[in-house]
Amino acid sequence: MYEQIDAYVLRLIEESTPERTVWNIEKIRQGKSADWNYIDGCMLTALLAMSEITGDTRYFAFAEHFVDSFVGDDGSIRTYRMEKYNLDDVNEGRVLFPLYEATKKEKYKKAAALLRRQLSEQPRTFEGNFWHKAIYPNQVWLDGLYMAQPFYALYEKNFGSGDYSDMLRQIETVRARMFDADRQLYYHGYDASRKAFWADSETGRSRNFWLRSIGWFAVALADLVEIVPTGETNERLRAIFTELMQGVARWADEASGMYWQVVDQGGREGNYLETSGSSMLAYAMLKGARLGVLPQDYAAKGEKTFRGIVERYLSFSGKELNLGGICLVAGLGPEDNRRRDGSYAYYISEPVVENDAKGVAPFLLCYTEIKRRELR
């Protein structure tokens, strides 16, 4: 099976160019031209992990070529517009750090500084958390924690002063505002102003627990406990991460180890076991166990989830391999898109697709953790 997965990934990069990646299904469906975006960023992160664990330089070469097509010698980023204040646009910047370390191209460092400047200017809630985007005033989404905070920490570690206090404060605010103590799960979004149509008028929270948003947060924390040096900040991150993983593990499907699109409503009509969020949680469990943050039985839980995804959604047809069960997209609002209201009906209504990077990338990250485990 491993050889088939490796061949599948190589097929994806062989069929892709910086102007059209076959894994960005959302962009293909919209007929939009290439730009700097988090979907490709997630895939590049996974490709660099594949390069590291397999030693195959083709993954790294593709990532370098891809980023070079967007980043100019002066550090400018083609198609990037800071004034959008979109945290999603920061995510792709995390690949600049390993690329700079390997090549010492100054343009990567300059581009990272440009994205870091966005974070300095990013609008914030009254409590100090980044707005998810300029078009979502006062809103904090779990997705945004993954999009911005690992980059933020990597910049501080590589080029900054090593001050992680702002990053930690934002995560602790999310813990205080978005965690449901009864279900031990995090809500998808929170509006600090309580004005968004989808937000509870008293708590500001959205209504449901969307799997991939929790997955984004889990991956962010798993990566941050590796990035941030040992000390008080790291210990606090470990505690929040451990609580999250213990809470979500209770909602796993017993047979497959996978997780439901709306996490706490397994078996409800229309709900389904979803690939991207399940892969993210499996990755976080495997990595957390490898780093010694989570008990070792979480590695077994993560591996069970990975195997469940393979059995349910990885299909083989001759030399072709496809990964299904991926929710294409989900969000909250904006005001002129009231279909995205955070309801159960909304989350199960979004398209389910094959081979989109929001599922493929975390599946590959999970796969690299499986391989690391076997190499130990």
Describe this structure in words.
With 376 residues, this protein is mostly helical. The protein has one domain: Glycosyltransferase (Alpha/alpha barrel). 53% of the residues lie in helices and 6% in strands. The chain has helices at residues 2-14, 25-30, 38-54, 57-68, 88-91, 96-103, 106-121, 142-158, 165-178, 211-227, 232-249, 275-290, 297-313, 344-347, 357-375, and strands at residues 139-141, 179-180, 185-186, 189-191, 314-317, 320-323, 326-327, 352-353. The strands form four sheets. Strands 1-4 form a two-stranded antiparallel sheet. A two-stranded antiparallel sheet has the order 2-3. A hairpin with a 2-residue loop joins β5 (314-317) and β6. α9 (165-178) runs parallel beside α11 (232-249) and α10 packs parallel to α12 (275-290). It is globular, with a radius of gyration of 19 Å.
Question: In a nutshell, what does this entry contain?
Answer:
Helices cover 53% and strands 6% of the residues.
Shape: globular
Report on the biggest sheet.
Answer: 2 strands, antiparallel
Portion in strands: 5-15%
Cross-sheet strand order for the largest sheet: 1-4
Order of helices and strands: HHHHHHHEHHEEEHHHHEEEHEH
Number of strands: 8
Top-tier CATH class: Mainly Alpha
State the CATH topology.
Glycosyltransferase
Helix-strand category:
mainly alpha
The N- and C-terminal alpha carbons lie at a distance of: 20 Å
